[in-house]
Every structure is written in C-alpha cells, then in structure tokens.
UniProtKB/TrEMBL annotation:
This is Glycosyl hydrolase. Keywords: Hydrolase. The lineage of its organism: Bacteria, Pseudomonadati, Pseudomonadota, Gammaproteobacteria, Vibrionales. The keyword Zinc does not apply. InterPro entries: 6-hairpin_glycosidase_sf, 6hp_glycosidase-like_sf, UG_Glycosaminoglycan_Hydrolase. Belongs to the glycosyl hydrolase 88 family.
Length: 382
C-alpha cells in the first residue's frame, strides 16, 4: 500500500531551507515569548508559566541552530532558560509533560552547547517525572489533582501523550547510569502497549486505573471524539513514542507495535495525507483537519524508516513519511505568508472546546523534524 506518487528528496531539501529561513524571520517578532496557539489572523497567543506547549518553539530554534550554526537561533533559545528554571523550581507545576518541556529545551541546549546547567535541569526534571511512576500499576500518572478533570478523575489516569515524554527518562538514565529511570520508562511503555492499544491497533487517548489497588479499569478520551474513537494526534504520539522506545531499548516488540499502529493510520490516510482530527469521526460531524497530527505521524513514520533493517521496509515507511509531509506542504504550509508567525495552519488542538483550525507550535516543530529526517539528519533531542 505505497502512496501513489513516488517522492524524491530534493524538493524536501529546498523546503527545509525555506522553513529555516521563515523561522529566522519570526524570531524578533516572537521575542522571548513561547507560542501556544494561533489566532484567526495567524498570529500567536503565548504561554503562561508551566504550559506543556512551551518547549516546541524552543526546540524548533535548537533544530535550526543545529542545522545552520547561526548564533541568532542559539541566542533566542538560550533566552528561554529562565522560563524553564522557574518551572523546575516549582514542583507543583510538574506533570507528565516534563518530557516535552525539558527534552526540547534543556536536553537540546546541553547537546548543542555542553551547558552543564541545562544538563542538571533536565536530569532534575527526569527525576520529577519518575516520581509520577506507580510501581504496582507500572504507569506514569498524567495529571495533577488541580487538572480541570478534578482529583477524582486524575489520580489513576495515564495518557497516550506520555509515550513521547519517557525519552527524557531514557536520556537521564544514560547520563546518570540509573537503571531505575530506564526500567520505569520501559515498564510504562509496556503498560500502555497492553492497555491503551486496542486489538485493531487503534488507541485510547487515556486509560484509568484504580488509584488505590492499581487495577486496570477502562480506556477513555479527553480530546478525541468519543471513548471508542481514535484521536489522530494520540495515534501519532504512540507511533513516534513506541519507535523511540525501541531506539533506546533495542526491544523489537516496540518497533513492531509502532509499525502496526502506523498501518492503522495509513489505512485512514490513503485518500488524504492530512488527517482528520479523529480517525473515527462520524461523517455528520465537522471534518476539521489536524496538521499537527499529520506532522507527528510523518516524523514517526520517518523515525521507523531509520530503524528498519530491511531496505524495502525502510523505503516503504520513508515514502509514507514524505507523502504526509508533501500533504502538509500543499495544504497547510504558511511559509509564503509574510504575516504568519507559524509554519502550519489547520491544526486542531481541542475540537470540543472550539480550538480548531489553528497554528500549533508542536505541529511546526514536528514538521521541521520530519523535513530533517527526510533530508538525512540523524540527531534529535528525544
């Protein structure tokens, strides 16, 4: 089930350079702010303290610095250190999103500048993430009692997004020699493989355990259409996340699972490479697209391609990754706009709250990551 068109790398190389130049052009407009969500006129609303979205523009800047070596990218990323220092100093703000927040800011900063303070901040964040690990249930609790769902609904809940956050624990384990962090990340991944992935390789967004006994209860959604639907961005977190777990562990069951989750997504993307926000959305509902789900899925396909030993299988996943990126280039790309502050339109953050058809900084970050993977770049911050 290859895409109908066979893609070559050069077109994507040229567009990668265009995205980097576009990012550079917006640095002074964005300043030291952290983009959160786009407005109707393609400007940004910005994050307050501790926002889970806060790291994606920073990660985008670090990727551009890695590509170009230009000081403007590094300086802009470094200006955000104070934001993350405040976050690490306030443990009441911490939840499972520490991986997003500190992999793309502090792990990235340490990798590219050897700044020891970045390293220590990221290690501290990894240990804080470990404190959310439930040793009996073998999962990471997603949210705090202060979450909008309330304490009665959060204290036994894990979510699919967390599969991207475990990379911080794997990285910190390598830095410190702590097998405790690595084993918790593995255990959590195995628990989600068992409970959040369905038999047909669609996924729940969240899964509930009894907070006292840790017994599994049921899967639900928070941002998807329904408990038994399949939120497209959630599926993408799982594809990228399980592939990343394989990259850290070498355990092939995680790579095989990432592939099977990918096949489910491919079946729903064969007619349009930009996904609808939920793969099981009834036709009677507004068919909002989610460019961010497309970008994460594309990056996940390309990560899988880089991990495949079989040349034909590698080519298959690479072609699918390029197919999704080309869809984003054709339908959602804003780099020809002199006014837009973000790269992609048509993101769906939270459709039930009318947060749809927006620019999203995580869509932009993964779009850049996917373009880089197509063009053969190997080093990332996960």
């Amino acid at each position: 089930m290859y895409p109908e068109t066979r893609y070559e790398h050069q077109e994507f190389q040229n567009h990668l350079l265009k995205v980097v130049d576009f990012t550079k052009g917006n640095i002074r407009k964005i300043g030291i702010n952290n983009p959160k969500i786009g407005t109707a006129d393609n400007q940004w609303l910005y994050c307050g303290p501790s926002d889970w979205v806060s790291s994606f523009w920073t990660g985008q800047l670090w990727l551009c610095y890695q590509l170009t070596g230009e000081e403007e990218f590094k300086n802009s990323a470094n200006f955000r250190k104070a934001y993350f220092k405040e976050m690490i100093a306030n443990p009441d703000w911490h939840d499972h999103d520490l991986g997003f927040q500190f992999s793309l800011s502090c792990v990235a900063g340490h990798m590219l500048t050897e700044d020891e303070e970045y390293r220590q901040m990221a290690i501290e964040a990894a240990h804080s993430l470990y404190l959310r690990f439930r040793r009996i249930g073998k999962y990471i609790v997603a949210w705090n009692e202060t979450h909008i769902l309330g304490p009665e609904k959060t204290q036994g809940k894990t979510i699919i997004d967390s599969l991207q956050n475990t990379a911080l624990m794997f990285w910190a384990s390598q830095q410190t020699g702590s097998d405790l962090l690595k084993q918790a990340a593995i255990d959590h991944s195995e628990t989600l493989a068992k409970h959040i992935v369905r038999d047909d390789f669609s996924t729940f967004h969240t899964f509930n355990f009894d907070p006292l006994t840790q017994a599994p209860i049921k899967g639900e959604t928070f941002q998807g259409y329904a408990d038994d639907s399949c939120w497209a961005r959630g599926q993408s977190w799982a594809i990228h996340g399980f592939a990343q777990t394989y990259a850290y562990t070498g355990d092939k069951k995680f790579l095989e699972l990432a592939k099977k989750l990918s096949y489910f997504a491919m079946e729903h993307l064969k007619d349009d490479p930009v996904p609808i926000w939920d793969y099981r959305l009834p036709e009677s509902e507004p068919q909002y697209k989610d460019s961010s789900a497309g970008a994460v899925t594309a990056a996940g396909f390309l990560l899988i391609a880089s991990l495949c030993e079989d040349e034909k299988e590698r080519d298959f996943f690479e072609q699918w990754g390029m197919h999704l990126v080309k869809g984003l280039m054709d339908q959602c790309d804003l780099t020809d706009s002199s006014e837009a502050l973000g790269v992609l339109k048509n993101g769906a953050s939270f459709v039930a709250r009318d947060m749809c058809d927006n620019m999203l900084p995580y869509g932009d970050y993964y779009y850049l990551e996917a373009l880089m993977r197509i063009c053969g770049h190997k080093r990332y911050f996960w």
